[in-house]
Design goal:
alpha/beta, Rossmann fold, Dihydrodipicolinate Reductase, domain 2, 9-stranded mixed β-sheet
Length: about 350
């Protein structure tokens, strides 16, 4: 019979309780308890049927606990992770794993010393919109992709309490930025050659309420990654250009399309159109026969689910889908983006990727 792993959630807030919900049906991971510093969250945990541990020490001294899942604000991830690993527990940690890359390096060292697994929940590698773009990129469905725009736009400002505070690892670059950059680096197998960025502080917080980062990769691809929290009109989630066409995905419902050049017809010079107070041939839309509009490709996810992969990594030392070296590279990129924005400089030669 397959082994059942007992898991305790540290931080039973938005994401902690979401994990509990997702794990309800899991065959091999069972949530057995939680800890939280707030009484109302402890009550919520009891109401949901999970034991409440008095302290982290109580969790770590319980030999029946195999995995600790950290879903607290970002500033305490490191301390909890290192304490749990030193107690020989496996650890799943929410993103951003730590605020600084050096802290992740410390955690990786301690995980290795204790021969325990440390896995970061970069769940947006499994997002359908991302996997659709990855298929377009990998299978060259619009030719060679040379430019990618990846955006999320909201109009609700920075949510919650701790996300407004620098000391707790708040701000949008560390929040949504870590997802969008992780997706991009997971997809593009090439070294980043330069970064430029600007951060937005229009809401008056001490942390960024959004950002734009411009990346150039050695393979010639460029990317604009943008997060906004004051966007009352949203731009599409993805806009991608290739040598033979363009693709767009509007939102998480995966509405969008691919438009490619029709290679089967002779190219006819476009006719000038009236544009404002002038004429243009350059910006005239292509004739109907010059293009082919297609649906986005269907994707069958071939990667193991996050939790199944955690079990495989713990049980058989399988390769993690989310590798700590990849998470480290994303954190180093985030540090470079902060630096590029602060100095208003293009930063080159920082990426060690081979
Ligand atoms: P939240 O504020 O809703 O919940 C955090 C909980 O941790 C709170 O209940 C708080 O009382 C508790 N807490 C704080 N310090 C603690 C400590 N020392 N010990 C135990 N409990 C403690 O925040 P959230 O939105 O759930 O975010 C939690 C983590 O999850 C963050 O790292 C965040 O970036 C991440 N997150 C990830 C995703 C994702 O898609 N992967 C989505 C949202 C949040």
């Amino acid at each position: 019979m397959a082994r059942i792993y007992h898991l305790v959630i540290v931080g039973y807030g938005g994401m902690g309780s979401y994990h509990a919900k997702l794990l309800k049906e899991h065959q091999q991971i069972r949530v057995v308890g939680t800890i939280d510093v707030l009484e109302e969250k402890r009550e919520a945990s009891l109401a949901d049927g999970y034991k409440v541990y008095e302290s982290l020490t109580a969790v770590l001294s319980d030999p029946s606990v195999d995995i600790v899942l950290i879903a607290t604000p970002n500033d305490v991830h490191k301390e909890i992770a290192i304490t749990a690993l030193n107690a020989k527990k496996h650890v799943i940690c929410e993103k951003p794993v730590t605020i600084y890359s050096e802290d992740l390096e410390d955690i990786m060292r301690v995980a290795e010393e204790n021969d325990c697994q440390f896995i970061v929940h970069q769940n947006r590698r499994w997002d359908k919109d991302f996997l659709t773009i990855k298929k377009i990129y990998d299978d060259q469905l619009i030719g060679n992709v040379f430019h990618i725009e990846s955006r999320v736009h909201g109009a609700n400002g920075i949510p919650g309490d701790w996300r407004h505070l620098k000391a707790q690892g708040g701000g949008m670059l560390l929040d949504w930025g870590v997802h969008l950059l992780d997706q991009l680096l997971f997809m593009i197998d090439s070294r980043i050659t330069s970064v430029h960025a600007n951060l937005s502080f229009v809401l008056g917080d001490e942390v960024d309420d959004g950002f734009q980062a411009f990346l150039t990769f050695e393979n010639g691809c460029t990317a604009l990654v943008e997060v906004g929290t004051t966007n009352f009109i949203q731009l599409p989630r993805w806009y991608v250009k290739g040598t033979r066409g363009t693709s767009i995905i509007n939102d998480w419902s995966i509405s969008g399309k691919i438009v490619t050049q029709n290679l089967g017809v002779e190219v006819v010079a476009p006719k000038p159109i009236q544009a404002g107070q002038g004429l243009t041939k350059t910006m005239a839309p292509p004739s109907e026969t010059a293009i082919i509009t297609s649906n986005l490709p269907e994707i069958e996810s071939t990667i193991e689910s996050f939790y199944d992969n955690v079990v495989s990594v713990i049980t058989e030392k399988a390769e993690p889908v989310v590798k700590n070296t990849e998470v480290l590279r994303v954190l180093q990129l985030i540090e470079t983006i902060f630096k590029a924005a602060e100095k208003n400089e293009v930063i080159k030669d920082f990426d060690q990727y081979k």
